[in-house]
Amino acid sequence: MNNFQIKNIVLVFVLILLTACSPKLSRTNKYSNSVAANVSPILNTILGRDTINIGTTGDFMPFSYKTDSSNNYLGIDIAMAKDLAKHLGVNLKFIETTWPTLMTDLMEGKFDVGMSGITITSAREKQALFSIPVYSSGKVAITRDENVSIYNSIESINRKEVKVIFNPGGTNESFARENFPKATLILNEDNITIFQKLIDKQADVMVTDAIETRIQEQIHKELEAVNLNKPFNSFDFGYLIQKDSVFKRVIDEWLLVKKQDSIVEKLLQQEIAKLE
Known about the structure:
Helices cover 42% and strands 22% of the residues. The strands form four sheets. Strands 1, 5, 6, 7, 8 and 14 form a six-stranded mixed beta sheet that branches. The protein is of the alpha+beta class.
């Protein structure tokens, strides 16, 4: 064996030794040894299982929805969830939740973050934390085209002969019960079938988030949002987590960068473009 061969063997041995001794780069490298991971129970759990569990309803366009019977979620918050998982360097798993069970599922640890166009409310903030606002909206009526000039105020809807339909467990139900006590209230089993029931005249009007009416009036040409640019109120959507201020800061820092890049607005435009 000549000197050249010996040098090559030594070089290979050194490279193997350096590779074995050097820290392995993993997807969780950014947070795995961070102070945040050490003091945040939620982040520590996520990194430990190498997966973030995202709770979503799958019934609220354009934030979280399905186009078929499969478990393939689409929407703004689904895209944002994928980006969050990439940011944290972990895998992603969607956990289906419902509006009536949203808070219970969160508190029982069934998911780490709720991402489904969730309104920031004082009632929810008593139990949990929200990220900085993701998007702002307000409640708007949607009805059949011929009724747009009729149901254009709280007073015009709050009449016994008006059938107001809403889905259970969320802000649509609470808004209807608080503002339309004189109307005929119809509690529908889900959010998805409401719009066809409006078309079929099983109900007269629904009051929901303006961004949803904007999408649904494009899907259902028989329906129209009422005073889309003048909602009955205003509120923000946010991402829902248990009370872990350190994990909230991690979420907020990631989200702030996305908002500075107008990512949510761009995703909304993509959702609208799908319907054109």
